[in-house]
């Protein structure tokens, strides 16, 4: 299954293949001892330990050297002590110098048994044999992910199957890359002026990713260029632009153009997609399939608060940021203290005269000393050059926050904490989070305001290096817990009668995730409108396909948001692999279209919701915008990421009705 020279994963009929794999696995080097010594000093020691095996071919090294204690979220060092880390670094320096002096030969690739040994050491036994293929694919020891499904259709069939993709965020761009590689013609419709989706729209100060960049990146694109462990919006947007240019996707994109309607034509077996250009003209495109890549964060919410329209100063949502509004020496009211407000307020506090933060619900903060930290140049050198080091660093980044979190997010029905936690393990997380807050704040009144009264992990946990609490203790920043009674022409009045003046009003109030299509009118078989079928409880089989909507595919669709543990980009790669499999299934069977069987979709949706009922996201004490009017969380994903990778490997024809 694994093993042999690295060439077994570079066999791509793509001109980028060899360059891509070399850049992913490690570029040859001839740098000085001083450069190597500096890189070793800054490296993730568990990842360094694994790279040493690739350089020497000696798995026995793992018996000789200290090992990670366990993989811990936001910790790249595996809980290792300083003496243990130094012992590994000392040996690594010699190994790397020897590898350099041997001319950087092709690195060793382990077989299945050897990989299991490496994983046992790396994860302190957490990664069992069940996960072996899953991890091997991401590490690039197999071609299961990068090549996608083996296609049974012909190149000619695929060339006559035009696809319209709605949206050019990370998912739409990915769809274009994979469709182009498969020889499927496509057009991407994007309402904004450039690629990026949410990273184009959300450009407020302080906006940054909350998943480590090693994981929040396409698995087939190197990650040695990031300047921060958690990059800010401009760098992520540049990354997406660079990827678009590298794969020459721009000629396939219609920017500043909106999809207003998509109608299935049963007679022709195709979709008629109505688009509106920026000058107001309507056009119609014909497609055999539609990929809806609008995502769950495309419709910002402004709450219905009395007087909201009466405010006379600039007022806007963080997702509609006004670059023309200067906040210097202004009194700013920020309504909302979730992820956007949490990032925004510290970023503007030095500029403004006063910031008043109106918090409806306190948010849990996870300790993360690297959240604003720059990646030192020597550490970037290690990612760029040490064999497979960058792949293992990616593994260190994702494993502790994905499938390893299961115990912490499961509700123990016998656990009673008055709604403050959901289990003993979850309560331990609560205590850790509170202890972290106390490191940065001794003000008991403020601590009471910022300590949530619901279990941790119940919403997406914010990443914190102390900046939030430090900012809230400034004399020119105030956190207000009292509800808002009304917005006035020049400020905000709370229910206690206090009026606070404001020059600028910023809504940091999240998104309508349960109506992700927004105004797009999608109609399938028998004219059924998707917005009517979904209402505020959207559903899709594996989050991708919907009964009665032929050859219609979602990316980041209903039931795919792994709220605390996954990279949206990784999930998108799973979805696009599955979508290509569906297209291939249609073509290879000479069918007009495929739709998932209603009972299959209903069963999947039922199982997902039943699973979610056992998890902290549906805990009675948790109020979030993920919950719809009936209290369910239709946009969330309840199973392991490993399960999703397995289920989306290739479609099962028995799950579908193929119309010939």
Describe this structure in words.
This protein has 660 residues and is α/β, with parallel strands linked by helices. It has three domains: 6-147 and 376-401, no CATH class; 161-299 and 513-659, FAD/NAD(P)-binding domain, CATH 3.50.50; 308-372 and 413-507, FAD/NAD(P)-binding domain, CATH 3.50.50.60. The chain is 33% helix and 14% strand. The chain is built from 21 helices and 21 strands. The strands form six sheets. It has a five-stranded parallel beta sheet, with helices on one face. It has a five-stranded parallel beta sheet with strand order 8-17-9-10-13, with helices on one face. The chain is globular. Residues 3-16 have low confidence and may be disordered.
- Whole-angstrom Rg: 25 Å
In the CATH scheme, what's the topology name of the largest domain?
FAD/NAD(P)-binding domain
Instruction: Tell me the overall shape.
Output: globular
CATH superfamily of the largest domain: FAD/NAD(P)-binding domain
The count of helical stretches stands at 21
Domains (count): 3
Described by strand count, sense and barrel closure, the largest sheet is: 5 strands, parallel
Distance N to C terminus: 37 Å
CATH architectural category of the largest domain = 3-Layer(bba) Sandwich
Q: What percentage of the residues does DSSP assign to strands (E)?
A: 5-15%
Proportion of residues in helical segments = 25-40%
* CATH class designation of the largest domain: Alpha Beta
Largest sheet, spatial ordering of strands: 3-2-1-7-19
Q: Mean pLDDT, as a whole number?
A: 93
Low-confidence stretches: 3-16
- Counting DSSP E segments of at least 2 residues, the number of strands comes to 21
Structural class designation: alpha/beta
InterPro entries: FAD-bind_Monooxygenase_sf, FAD/NAD-bd_sf
Pfam families: Pyr_redox_3
């Amino acid at each position: 299954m694994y093993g042999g020279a690295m060439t077994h994963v570079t066999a791509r009929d793509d001109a980028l293949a060899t360059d891509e794999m070399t850049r992913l696995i490690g570029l040859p080097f001839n740098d000085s001892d001083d450069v190597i010594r500096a890189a070793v000093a800054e490296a993730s020691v568990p990842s360094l330990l694994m790279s040493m095996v690739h350089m020497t071919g000696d798995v026995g090294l793992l018996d000789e050297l200290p090992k990670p204690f366990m993989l811990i979220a936001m910790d790249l060092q595996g809980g290792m002590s300083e003496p243990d880390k130094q012992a590994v670094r000392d040996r690594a320096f010699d190994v790397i110098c020897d590898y350099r002096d041997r001319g950087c030969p092709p690195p060793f690739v382990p077989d299945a048994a050897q990989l299991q040994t490496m994983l046992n050491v790396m994860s302190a036994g957490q990664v069992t044999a069940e996960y072996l293929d899953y991890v091997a694919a991401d590490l690039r020891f197999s071609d299961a992910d990068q090549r996608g499904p083996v296609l049974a259709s012909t190149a000619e069939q695929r060339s006559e199957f035009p696809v319209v993709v709605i949206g050019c965020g990370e998912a739409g761009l990915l769809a274009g890359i994979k469709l182009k590689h498969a020889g499927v013609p496509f057009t991407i419709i994007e309402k904004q002026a450039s690629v990026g989706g949410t990273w184009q729209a959300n450009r407020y100060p302080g906006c940054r990713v909350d998943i480590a960049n090693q994981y929040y990146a396409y698995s087939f694109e190197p990650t040695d260029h990031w300047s921060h462990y958690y990059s800010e919006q401009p760098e992520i947007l540049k990354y997406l632009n660079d990827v678009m240019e590298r794969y020459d996707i721009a000629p396939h994109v219609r920017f500043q153009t909106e999809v207003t309607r998509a109608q299935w034509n049963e007679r022709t077996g195709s979709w008629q997609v109505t688009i509106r250009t920026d000058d107001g003209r309507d056009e119609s495109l014909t497609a055999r399939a539609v990929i809806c890549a609008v995502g769950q964060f495309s419709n910002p919410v402004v709450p219905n608060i009395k007087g909201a329209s009466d405010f006379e100063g600039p007022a806007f949502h963080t997702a509609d940021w006004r670059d023309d509004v200067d906040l210097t020496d202004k009194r700013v009211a920020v309504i909302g203290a979730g992820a956007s407000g949490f990032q925004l307020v510290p970023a503007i506090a030095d500029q403004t005269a006063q910031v008043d933060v109106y918090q409806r619900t306190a948010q849990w903060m996870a300790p993360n000393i690297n959240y604003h930290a720059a990646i030192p140049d020597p550490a970037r050198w290690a990612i760029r050059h040490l064999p497979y080091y960058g792949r293992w660093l990616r593994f260190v980044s994702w494993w502790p926050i994905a499938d390893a979190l299961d115990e912490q997010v499961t509700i123990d029905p016998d656990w009673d904490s008055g709604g403050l936690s959901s289990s003993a393990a979850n309560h331990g997380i609560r205590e850790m989070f509170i202890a972290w807050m106390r490191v940065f704040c001794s003000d008991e009144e403020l601590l009471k305001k910022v300590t949530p009264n619901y279990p941790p992990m119940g919403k997406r946990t914010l990443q914190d290096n102390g900046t939030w609490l430090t900012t809230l203790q400034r004399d020119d920043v105030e956190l207000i817990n009292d509800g808002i009674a009304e917005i006035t022409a020049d400020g905000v009045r709370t229910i206690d009668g206090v009026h606070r003046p404001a020059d600028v009003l910023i809504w940091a109030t999240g998104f309508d995730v349960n109506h992700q299509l927004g105004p797009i009118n999608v109609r399938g078989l028998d004219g059924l409108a998707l917005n009517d079928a979904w209402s505020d409880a959207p559903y899709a089989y594996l989050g991708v396909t919907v009964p009665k909507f032929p050859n219609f595919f979602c990316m980041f669709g209903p039931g795919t948001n792994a709220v605390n543990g996954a990279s949206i980009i990784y999930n998108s790669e799973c979805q696009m692999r599955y979508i290509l499999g569906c297209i291939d299934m249609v073509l290879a069977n000479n069918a007009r279209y495929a739709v998932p069987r209603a009972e299959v979709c209903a069963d999947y949706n039922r199982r997902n919701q039943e699973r979610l009922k056992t998890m902290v996201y549906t805990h009675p004490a948790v109020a979030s915008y993920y919950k719809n009017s009936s209290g369910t969380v239709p946009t969330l994903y309840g199973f392991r990421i490993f399960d999703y990778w397995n289920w989306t490997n290739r479609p099962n024809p028995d799950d579908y009705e193929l119309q010939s």
